[in-house]
Structures are given as C-alpha cells and as structure tokens.
C-alpha cells in the first residue's frame, strides 16, 4: 500500500517586488513528500530553498498556488490557525541555535510546552527524554555557553521535537559546525527519521546525501529531482 502523502505543493509561486522588479523566489513549484521520508534540499544561495521550507512550515505564504500539509490547507489558514499548526505539526531547527542564554538546556527544551500550557512535571519529563535521546542527558543543568556548538544544536533539535511534530524542518543545521560536531547532528537526525518523523533538511553538507531517501535541487526558484 502506498505511503500517505503528508506534504503537497501545487504550482506554488512566491514573488517579491524589489524596486519595481518582480523577483521569483519560487516559480510554480510542484512537490510531494510521503510520510516518514528524509529529504535533503540542495541548491545555491538565493535558489529558493529556505523560502520553500518556510512556506511548508507556515512561516511564509505563497503568492499563488496551494500548500497542503498533514491534511491542513495552509493557503486558507488565518494567523491563529497558522500559529496552532506551527506548534502542533512542524518543528524547526535553524543554523543559529536560538537558545535562551540565561536558561539551562533543560529549561530551553521545556519552553515550547510552557507556551502550550503543559504542566511542569510533564514538560520536565518530556524534556529529559528528548535530551537523553540526543545524548545530552548528562548536561541538563548547563547553560548554552557551557556546551559545544554541536551540543547546542542537539539541544535545539530536542526543543523542536518536544511538541512531537509530524515534520521536522532543518535549515542548514550543520552550517556552523565542524565535521565532528556536524556528524553528531547527522546521527541524531537519522535516528529521529528512523522513529517515523518526516525530515526536510536544507543543506550544503554533502555528508547528508547518503542518509536521505531523496535529494531535490533548487535552482532559480524551480525544483528538480536529483536522486530517489
């Protein structure tokens, strides 16, 4: 039986008006993702990679076309609906870790559940579980500045996973890391995918290619398949 489609973009275009000139960040993109896939998105700077995943994640809206994710038609959602979608369906990991420097790693990972109103005991339990999953169970009380850059990114991944999203979007997650720290992050992402989470990873890191089910190429706002 065919695997369920969890993401579908149909003729999605995103334009910007810069100095009277119409710029196409995305140009009539069609894209389908099956539940549980691990997809790596490659392409030069300015090719539309981040624009596409931001639209899938509900951080940006298309100028035209339709976007359906997990049964949600993002094209018809209001701001409050998009906010709920971002909190419940997708998790985000960025090149900059965006951790709160005054808080412990445990407190940082608990934060999304604070915003959701989850009781303290439950959010602490879940935060510890996810930090242990990424190998940081022994660093719960440390501040971000007391961790390596790779460990900070692993903490950011744990924070993204604590809401138990169906889809994890990672935009250059190893971009600021050396090869050793980057490998720690790659290993964690691979483990997360094996547990059933759909992964979309924007990267320049060639080491990610062998982990992916598919690699897609973005060029001048258009998408082409590289490998299945």
Descriptive account of the structure:
The protein has 228 residues and is of the alpha/beta class. The protein has 2 domains: 1-89 and 165-228, P-loop containing nucleotide triphosphate hydrolases (Rossmann fold, 3-Layer(aba) Sandwich), CATH 3.40.50.300; 101-164, no CATH class. The protein is built from 6 helices and 10 strands, in the order E-E-E-H-E-E-H-E-H-H-H-E-H-E-E-E. The chain has helices at 49-56, 79-88, 105-115, 120-133, 149-161, 179-194, and strands spanning 5-18, 21-34, 38-42, 64-69, 72-73, 90-94, 167-171, 198-202, 214-219, 222-227. Strands 6-7-8-3-9-10 form a 6-stranded mixed β-sheet, with helices on both faces. Strands 2-1-4-5 form a 4-stranded antiparallel β-sheet, covered by helices on one side. Helix 3 (105-115) crosses helix 4 and helix 3 (105-115) packs parallel to helix 5. The two termini are 19 Å apart. The mean pLDDT is 89.
How is this structure best summarized?
This protein is 32% helix and 30% strand. The chain is α/β, with parallel strands linked by helices and 228 residues long.
Key phrases:
30% strand, 6 helices, alpha/beta, 4-stranded antiparallel sheet, globular, single chain, Rossmann fold, 6-stranded mixed sheet, 228 residues, 2 domains
